[in-house]
Amino acid sequence: MVALSGSCPTLFSATLLKDPRPKDCGQPTDFAFAMTMQRARPSLPSDDKRWKIVNATMRRTGYAEHALIEALHSVQDAFGFLDEDAMIFVADSLDLPLSKVFGVATFYHLFMLKPQGRHSCVVCTGTACYIQGAGALIEGLEQRFGVNPGETTEDGALSVMTARCVGACGLAPAVVIDRQVSGKLDSNALNAKLEQEIAQ
C-alpha cells in the first residue's frame, strides 16, 4: 500500500493475481499485475457521531457526484443547517469544487446556511411572485418582525428567507411557512398567519 501526499491524496493498492490461463498457452507470464486506484476520503470534521451518519449516506451512494443533494440533505437533517465546514467536507468527499456545492446549497430554499428559528418563512422572489408583490411581503416582515431575509428573530421564533422559485407560480405571491406553501397573501395576511403559527 503506497500513499502519495499532496492536495489530493490518493491511495494505490496493488494485488498480484494468479494467471488463470493454462501454463502451456504459450504466454510469457504466469502472473497478471492488477492495480486499483481509489481516492482517499477526507477525515470527519469532528468526533460528533452525526458525521458518521452523513458519511454513511455518501458511502452508500458510492460518493457519486449525482448524490450531492442527498448528501446535503443528510447534513441538514443531522445538524439543522449547512455551515462552511460541512460544505467543505461534502465537496472533498464527492470530489467536487466547493463552488458547486455552495451553488446548490444556496439555490434550493430548503437548505439553510445558518441555525434556524422554530418557524420559517420563505418568500418566493421569482418573476411571477415579484410582480404580484413579493417585495411588499418582505418589507412587511421586516417592519413587523424586525428581520431581513437570511436572518432570525432574536428570540429564535422565526427565520425569514427568500427563494428564486418555489414552483407555485399560480399562487403568486407564494410563501412557504414551515414547509407548507401558501399563496395570494398580502402583507397583513402573511404577518397574521405567522403570528398565529408562532403563538401555537
What does this structure look like?
- It is a single chain.
- The protein is α+β, with helices and mostly antiparallel strands and 200 residues long.
- Helix 1 (50-60) packs antiparallel against helix 2, helix 2 (68-79) packs antiparallel against helix 3 (84-94) and helix 3 (84-94) crosses helix 4.
- The longest helix has 13 residues, at 187-199.
- The protein has three domains: 2-39, no CATH class; 50-107; 119-199, 3-Layer(aba) Sandwich (Glutaredoxin).
- The chain has helices at 50-60, 68-79, 84-94, 98-107, 127-131, 134-145, 187-199, and strands at residues 2-4, 10-18, 31-39, 119-124, 151-152, 158-163, 174-177, 180-183.
Question: Which features would summarize this protein structure in a list?
Answer:
200 residues; alpha+beta; Glutaredoxin; 3 domains; five-stranded mixed beta sheet; three-stranded antiparallel beta sheet; 8 strands; 37% helix; NADH:ubiquinone oxidoreductase 24 kD subunit; metal-binding; Thioredoxin-like_sf; ubiquinone
Morphology call: elongated
CATH topology of the largest domain: Glutaredoxin
Spatial strand sequence of the major β-sheet: 5-6-4-7-8
CATH class of the largest domain: Alpha Beta
CATH superfamily of the largest domain: Glutaredoxin
User: What level of helicity do the residues show?
Assistant: 25-40%
Q: Low-confidence stretches at least 5 residues in length (pLDDT < 50)? A: 1-21, 26-37
User: How large is the count of helical segments?
Assistant: 7
Q: Return the average pLDDT rounded to an integer.
A: 83
Terminal Cα separation, in Å? 60 Å
- CATH structural architecture of the largest domain: 3-Layer(aba) Sandwich
Tally of separate domains: 3
Total strand segments: 8
Which range does the strand content fall in? 15-25%
List SSEs in N-to-C order: EEEHHHHEHHEEEEH
Q: Structural class per helix/strand content? A: alpha+beta
Radius of gyration: 25 Å
Q: Which sheet architecture does the biggest sheet show?
A: 5 strands, mixed
